[in-house]
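User: Hello, can you help with two protein structures?

Assistant: Certainly.
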Amino acid sequence: MAVPKKRTSISKKLIRKNFWKKRGYWTALKAFSLAQSIFTGNSKSFFCNK
């Protein structure tokens, strides 16, 4: 017979949620930084024709 799983604690849920949000924040920051360097022409790792 199937038994329902135990409920995840609120603190554990918040830790996982914050980790997920922080990862998204750093990814967005990197993307913005790359866009800025491409726009100003100071990029050393990304080549594009102007």
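That covers the first. Now for the second protein you mentioned:
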Amino acid sequence: MRMNLKLLFTLVVAPFVLVKSTNCNFNGVDYTCMNKNKCKNSVVTGLCPGDSSNICCVKLANPKNTIATEVYNFFKAKGWTKNAICGLLGNMEFESNLNPNRKQSGGNGYGLVQWSPASVTAKTQCLRIQYEFGLQNTNSNEKQYYKTKQCNLTFSQFSKSTSSPEYLAECFMRNYERPNEKKAQLPKRKEYAKKWFKHFK
């Protein structure tokens, strides 16, 4: 008796075929959704369909450059100057090593600027900063940026500034991050800002 070949494949071969998960996609490439606690040293690009604890976990060859470019393009499209964006990036690299999935050690901070509330992806974290940008002329409790004596720039003035990226790194640190002065390590933030300014043409 001749057996249907399609049926034979289903019964014998199919159980041994490994199907790659295609539940999430990053830059046109499929990646695997997994529990966020198992996604180590990777870039989280978004929540996967279904269980909210699953994320799209992507390992990148050069994650810093990828995330920095995403941040740069986002704020450039919002009208920020290259100088201001690189001042921001200098702080992001110091705070989180440009890892949008980094949790603050001994605190509630999360992501690129180590702030709360936590959000998952680089894009949503940029959207949060832009949302806070829109609160600058309000009395909202969610406002995060306050001008200081050391940097008397409003958030709008900061975003449009053509001052040196090193100075703007200090402005963002003092007016937005507001870290403990003893742990601020301002020279490092300035160094990173200058590096990104040279990186982006």
